[in-house]
Amino acid sequence: MITLTRRGLIAAAAILPLPAAARDYAAGEIRIANPWTRAAGANANGAGFMTLRNTGSQPDRLLAAASPIARVVELHTHVREGEVMRMRPVQDIPVPAGQTVELRPGGLHIMLIGLNAPLQQGARVPLTLRFERAGEVQVELAVEAAGARGSGHRH
Ligand SMILES: [Cu+2]
User: What is the DSSP letter of 151?
Assistant: First the structure.
C-alpha cells in the first residue's frame, strides 16, 4: 500500500509543474524577499515585485534594475490622477535604515518593458538590482499566474 501511494505521488509530481517558489537574497545590509512576477506573453510588459528590507543603520536606495528578458527596465510607482491610478517612473526607491519597502501590485514595482520572450508560469527569470550602498545583486523572479495579486509562495 505504502509503495503504491508513493508511486502515485511521484507520478503526480512528474505531471504537475513544480511551483517556482520564490527565494530570498541578500546584498550587504539589504534583504530581498520573495521576488516574483506574473505570466505574460512576448512583447507584452511585465512587472517585478518583492520585499526590500534594510537591516543596516545607513539609508540605501534602489537605483536601477536590469534584465535580459526585457528591452527596458524601469522603476515605477502608481499615482492617483482623479479616479484612476497611473504608473509613473521614479528616479530611485529609497530603503531607509531599519525599514521594509514593499514592491507590490498597485504600488512600487520594477517595470519590464517589451518582454523578449513569454514569461511562463513556474519559470524563473533573472533580474539584477543595483543599490547605492549595497551594490549589485542578481535575483530571480518566480513567475506566478497571469492574474496573481501576490506570490503564492510566501513563507
Ligand atoms: Cu509600471
Answer: -
CA distance 91 to 155: 31
Whole-angstrom distance, CA of residue 41 vs CA of residue 44: 6
Across the strands, what pairs with 136? 130
Cα 38 from Cα 58, distance rounded (Å): 32
Which amino acid does the sequence have at 134?
Answer: A
Cα(47) to centroid(ligand 1), Å: 7
Question: How far away, in angstroms, is 16 Cα from ligand 1 center?
Answer: 32
Domain 20-144: assigned CATH number: 2.60.40.1890
List the chain pLDDT tens, one digit each, 155 residues: 444 555 555 554 444 444 556 689 999 999 999 999 999 999 999 999 999 999 999 999 999 999 999 999 999 999 999 999 899 999 999 999 999 999 999 999 999 999 999 999 999 999 999 999 999 999 999 999 998 887 765 43
The per-residue DSSP string of 35-83 comes to EEEE-B-TTS-EEEEEEEEE-SSS-EEEEEEE-TTEEEEEEEEEEEETT
Q: How far is the CA of 154 from the centre of ligand 1 (A)?
A: 23
